[in-house]
Structures are given as structure tokens and as C-alpha cells.
UniProtKB/TrEMBL annotation:
Name the record gives this protein: Integrase core domain-containing protein
Lineage: Bacteria, Bacillati, Bacillota, Bacilli, Bacillales
Domain of life from the UniProt record: Bacteria
Integrase catalytic domain segment(s): 1-101
InterPro entries documented for this protein: Integrase_cat-core, RNaseH-like_sf, RNaseH_sf
Length: 126
């Protein structure tokens, strides 16, 4: 079997004895990025760091089932479809629809709550 690797940043949570023991017992070899070098692990740093800052600093999952319900909502209904990303020229990973320009008085928006009203997205309606 090929060795498994996990790229970790230098967050204190990842340096704990418990994490190191778990990784060793699972046959996973940690690869740690250099200090102050988040670009070495762009996926983990952007998704994990952003997820922690934007969600779990405000939302405490009550159970694993609660977490499994809330994570997809954040990722699919907000992070990938409405939150702009600097790495892709301030676009979203899933492109948003392009609407024809209208007068601001004629535009009607529907507010869509995400994560129990922590965030809101907006959709133009006819």
C-alpha cells in the first residue's frame, strides 16, 4: 500500500500529541508547511481556515449529524456559489448567472438565508 500523506499548516491543533498519535496509528504521514506560508497548502488553508473563521466561530455543531447537515449547506449554498475568491480573479468557483441590466427600481431580489441566517445570498427574480 502506498503511504498516505496529509498536508498540515502550523496550527497548534495539528501539532498536538493526540493528532500526531492518530496520524501515526492510521498510517498517515504528516507533511507540515513552513511557517507563514499558507500558499503551500492553498486548499486546506483556504477552505479549512475560512470554514473555521466564517462558520465555526459563530456556529457550534451539536452533534456529528448537525455538522453533516451544516457543512454541505455552507460549501454548496455559500462558499462555492456566492463567496468570491481572490485566487480566481474575485469570481466564485461555481459561476453565478449573468443577468441583463435593468433599472434598480425594477430589480427584485429574493433573500436566501444560509446557516440559519448567519449569511444571506440574493437571487434576482422576475
Amino acid at each position: 500500500m502506498d503511504p498516505k500523506y496529509l498536508i498540515l499548516n502550523n496550527d497548534p491543533d495539528f501539532r498536538s500529541k493526540e493528532i500526531k498519535d492518530f496520524l501515526a496509528s492510521s498510517g498517515i504521514q504528516p507533511k507540515t508547511t513552513f511557517y507563514r506560508s499558507p500558499w503551500q497548502n492553498p486548499i486546506a488553508e483556504s477552505v479549512n481556515g475560512t470554514l473555521r473563521r466564517e462558520s465555526f466561530n459563530y456556529l457550534n455543531p451539536l452533534s456529528e449529524a448537525h455538522l453533516q447537515k451544516e457543512l454541505p449547506e455552507y460549501v454548496h449554498n455559500y462558499y462555492n456559489s456566492h463567496r468570491t475568491n481572490q485566487g480566481i480573479n474575485f469570481n466564485t468557483p461555481i459561476p453565478t448567472p449573468t443577468y441583463l441590466p435593468v433599472n434598480v427600481n425594477q430589480a427584485k431580489l429574493k433573500v436566501i438565508p444560509v446557516l440559519n441566517d448567519l449569511y444571506h445570498t440574493y437571487k434576482r427574480i422576475a
